[in-house]
């Protein structure tokens, strides 16, 4: 792989490429062109070729891309061969929905612990996941070697909890709160505001629909 930084937009498209390549491989397809891949994943072929160029020569001119080789390569890039334990902070409505989500279908991602302040939840097993008190969060994160956390708590508590997550060794936070978290540069934060996403979708519907 070339020793150059990968743009964030490119990194976000890698799971999309990987999922479709897995479908192709399972169906018995052995090679694919950037044009064919473009039509399937709805990303223009020039962008796909540029994304792939960050990783060196992945295909051959006139031949396209070998499906199995690409699948293996992106699987390694996405650490598909290594299980990643994830902590869920906050077992409210959204948190409960995420516990029900089939992360196990990806084989390499597992919510292994959840944390909440509600006494009626603490100590229970919810959808197969143990719920611990917030006071046990740092200890459990260290014991289970958890590096990623999903934050679905009230916004007013988000920064304080994010600080504790960093101190406990968390390196990545998926932030569903409306707070813009301040974290050290070595902690990656992916903020997801469902209201903003919906408003963006509606904007495109109103302004770009034929």
UniProtKB/TrEMBL annotation:
It is found in: Cytoplasm. Pfam families: CoA_binding, Put_DNA-bind_N. GO terms for molecular function: DNA binding; DNA-binding transcription factor activity. It comes from the Bacteria. Residues 16-55 bind DNA. Keywords: Cytoplasm, DNA-binding, NAD, Repressor, Transcription, Transcription regulation. One of its GO terms (biological process) is response to redox state. Its main location: cytoplasm. One of its GO terms (cellular component) is cytoplasm. The keyword Ribosomal protein does not apply. Residues 79-180 form the CoA-binding domain. NAD(+) binds at residues 90-95. Homodimer. NCBIfam families: PRK05472.1-3, PRK05472.1-5, PRK05472.2-3, PRK05472.2-4, PRK05472.2-5. Modulates transcription in response to changes in cellular NADH/NAD(+) redox state. Belongs to the transcriptional regulatory Rex family. This is Redox-sensing transcriptional repressor Rex. It comes from Vagococcus elongatus.
